[in-house]
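User: These chains co-purify. Model them together.
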Amino acid sequence: MTENKAPASGSILVVGGGISGLTTALEAAEVGYEVFLVEKNPYLGGRVAQLNQYFPKLCPPTCGLEINFRRIKDNPLIKVITLAEVTKVTGAPGDYDVQIKINPRYVNENCTACGECAKVCQTEIDSAYDFGMKKTKGAFLPFEMAFPARYVIAPEIIGTDDAARCKEACAYDAVDLDMQAKTLDLKVGAVVYATGWQPYDATKIDNLGFGQVPNIITNMMMERLAAPNGPTQGKILRPADQKAPETVAFVQCAGSRDENHLPYCSYICCMASLKQALYVREQYPEATIYIFYIDIRSPGQRYEKFYQKVKDDEKIIFVKGKVAAVEAAAGGAVTLTAENAVTGEKSSQTVDLAVLATGMQPTAAEAKLPGDITYTEDGFILNDFRKGGIFAAGCANKPADVVSSNQNATGMALKAIQTLAAK
Amino acid sequence: MSEAIMLDPDVGFIKDVRALGGGDLKKCYQCATCSVVCPISPENKPFPRKEMIAASWGLKDKLVSSADIWLCHNCGDCNTRCPRDAKPGDALGAIRAYAVSEYAGPKALGKLVRDKSKLPVLLAIPAAIFLVVGLLSNMVGLNWLNFSPAGGHEIWGHSYINNYLVDIIMIPTFFFAVGTFALGLKRFIADMHANALAEGKTKQEKIDPAGFVQAFIKIIPTIFKHQKFDECTENKSRSTAHMMVLYSFIGLFIVTNCFFFAEWILHIEGPYSQINPVKWLGNIAGIALIVGGLLLLKNRLAKTDSVSSYWDWYLVGMVLALGVTGMGTELLRLAGLYTPMAIVYFLHLMAIWCLFAFTPFSKLAHLVYRTVAMAYAEYSGRGF
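Assistant: Joint model of the two components:
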């Protein structure tokens, strides 16, 4: 091929197909390395795919993801393996034996995403993509621009009449109900974990009432409510009664910077709430928004400017004080109590909808990953560059926004390449 | 921006508060969770968030004169919920300890009481006083100390250590404590009012003594029923132990006064028989004091999320020492073991002397300061 192709001497395993994993995979593949991109969901895009808009330019996720999907399609060096998890990593830098478990999709490459299977499927299941706020059919396309653009048959309907109906409806012989889980053994020279994060379980923050008091949602649920492909077609409505909220409160540091929950700052929740305040302002110009915070963290000049802009909005009221008590109020409203640390008054604010700015917990905090990995106390993967061979990119390494995740992911692509080159 | 304020931090104060149990004070990042989760904090200018920053900044005067540090009952709900593990409850306890030493004079004595290594010195004081005065009395023929009392009359503590000797030492000590408290309170009440005016925590311009007394009367049932204590969630169990100790002290105070009156006015000699109602009260209170003291000890040992300093242990030790030596004296007498009884009785007198002399300088001073602060909060209409 071209002379700028690097001397490949092994391949790279990238675990996680979110924005960081996509970046690592593409950066490595585009300079000539073979990459296996393993994703546990049936689609790529990770958390970014669930957002309504994302920083820095407040693009819809389709915007940034589409170009990455396009680059993957065009690059034969990237092998995408969805519905897969890495079960074993043994060996040393430059020479790893990896075992991957691939769960059945029950739909093969023949799928044209025509959607006939979903039409005939009667069973509905909770959509994890929409945090349970929406049901999908047992045969579903994860979202409109899912990559790979193939339907999935949920394991829940396997063995039922619904599964048989789906198979029958498929004109392309794409439904394969006999598909079994299989394992794949690979030899790779380097591993990059881009296993990302999950929203901290808000039910654990028992004084903030999530799951007990109606109309308290998390910030990620807010993204889904605001997203045009979300459960309400982008209309921000209260989950309990589908009412348009006239007042919305954002509760910052819900579980973050808290020794009882996540002791670290999750980096992006302040910006997420500022952004979401604007979602509400755009949809409901008359709505009043309260942001309860300890400190607003808007890292960097760009975010600081954004904060200033939101602060200048007179419909958005900032209250310096962490919400520490929550109770249900009349008519499905929520009463939040905080001490305003500026005035020294303890005050309660009743709002139609409360949004908990929950933080990021590394996926590895709850399910340890295979391989010789060192973690922080909180479950983030520490990059040991002296040992090398296995690296962490993006939010698997530390809480970050998309921009810093991509910077970090590019760096880890280089580290992986260096491992191969050093062999 | 708001107006600039010049802070005058007292660094020594910060160090002292941290040493007295507020070691995690500086972890606080002012999120104000504590003020909201506190079950007894008022709506207007709630504690302890503002105390945490004032302490971090070394604003001693603002804190020692504040009634709010005394309204805190160390429920511990703030400690549990604190996202930084800064232990606001412990910090307030430490600030209270500091405030006690600010208002009790002479301050040098306060320093001794706060210092663990000075405990033997403090205990030696009453021993020396009793021995010196006793031996002097023997030299002038009063023979208030008798090392081998003759039989004939029923043998009890008085046979060894004459009640004249006891009272001639105890009564001035008691009034020393009362005087110390009076002087401390005079300053404390004035400071507390000035602080409340400055921080907008009071509806009253001036302290009207009659109104203040009425407020005081109004809060007595609250104290006796431990109503504030019972609002706590985390440390609710402490309420029982505290109540037992408080009622025992009251019971024993009544018994002591009955005895004093009977002996010097009615000339009825002890020891009382076991069927005497005063004896019943004394026995019940004595047992309750030991049980309450043991419960205090148990609660403190079980508390892993909060700091117990010498300041706290001193009080637990004092309660147990009083109870054990008091009941010990009685049991040894009933068992006819007179020499051991005399030794334990001597120790009991030492403990009582320490109780009187050192209370204004020790944690037990909260009895006075918290009561007055609660009365003031009631008077000032703070809704506490």
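Residues 108-379 of chain B form one domain.
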